Amino acid sequence: MRKMMLMTICVMLGTAVFCSAAIISDDFNRPDSALNLGSTAEGYAWARLDKSSGDGSNAPGIKNGQLYWNGGSNGNDVVYPSGAPAVGDFQLDLDFYRLSEVVSSHQIYMWFRLPTPTSYIPSGGTTPGYGLYWYPTAANSFKFTLYNEYGGNVSGTATTNQNWTGHLTLIAQGNRIQVKVDGTQIIDYTDNTGNPAATGEGYFQFYSNPYRAEAIDNLMIVPEPATIGLLTAAGVFGFIRRR
Q1: What average pLDDT does this structure show over 77-96?
Q2: Number of Cβ atoms within 10 Å of the Cβ of 82
Q3: Which position has the higher pLDDT, 180 or 210?
Q4: pLDDT > 90: what percent of the chain?
Q5: Which domains does the chain have, with CATH numbers?
């Protein structure tokens, strides 16, 4: 399993070196736990929003150094980095993994630019913010869907050829949102709908439907650099741990 050093990102462009401190980063490299998700490298504890009216102990958990959803049928909790700041322009990178051969429309959700850390996104609502959802559609493909949650509009879809794993990059700069998988751009959306999140700041959440067996790893969120689009693939990054 590949592990990245976290906290600061640097890249050389020509003779110049650009570095940016991470806003939120986590390699999830800690003991397995079905309940205690630990904290990000910046010290933000992963907190749960119980979507199943249970005790808040449902998936996800930490397993094999990843944040994973176990594919159970009893509902899953939304998780978010408690205390993390609101973020406007950013670049997010993570590795995603498929942990079973089950193919269905149940999916992993990643919400961003939400108005509060604990915002709940109702179907067809008018909550400012965006959602990116993905799931395996066949033995060798994933489908990605970008939602403008301000009215529940589909803003872009794409199917990629990953089987068990891939690297996701999401770049949000003003009202433009780009999604890349393994360095290839698959969605490029400009929001002119009046969504307040198009030019604002907001918060992140992660969730998975029941019955999904998937995981994420090597999460890194940094302020979006002026060199938009250049820091896109995992192989470009240089990570430096600061303690």
Answers
A1: 92
A2: 14
A3: 180
A4: 35
A5: 8-240 (2.60.120.200)
